[in-house]
Design brief:
Helices cover about 25% and strands about 40% of the residues. It is α+β, with helices and mostly antiparallel strands. The protein has two domains: about 40 residues; about 120 residues, Sandwich (Immunoglobulin-like), CATH 2.60.40. The chain is elongated, with a radius of gyration of 27 Å. Keywords: Membrane, Transmembrane, Transmembrane helix.
Length: about 170
Amino acid sequence: MNKSCYFHSILTSTVNKGGSTIIKISVLIIIGLIMIGMFIFEPFHLEPPTPNVTIGDGDIPTTQGSYCWKGILSAQCKDMAYTSLFDMASTHKPTVVSSNEKIKIEFKKAPIAGTMKVEQWVDEDNIQKVEVKNGLIVVPKEKGVYAYHVIANWEQGDGNYAFSIEVK
């Protein structure tokens, strides 16, 4: 056997094995990136977007309630166990605000137009619908603690949230 042919066959065999390994590693990296993307990108999430509730420059913390949500690969409904909206809102201390301030409620992914509803709870027997204009609601004039219930619908499902304020 010619020496140059022998080395050529060994070199070709080594390159071919290395090429096969490179292809396998590349395929594994691509599959890994796809799996990571499924958990990061919005269409694969299995819960509705959380609202960003603000007053002036401050954030008002919210608590997520029960929801149903359909992703690309699966769907789920999750029931949260709260005895009332006050119980749900009490997971965060009420945010102190001044009367007649404006609270902004916005979602990263907007709900279906006209489906976001807001209720104001003073107590279990005193619940009022609140007018929402361009994602804004107005704080009451009267001092006290108020819990708010935000309900919204998307193509993928629905969600509800609570937050509370204290007017001083």
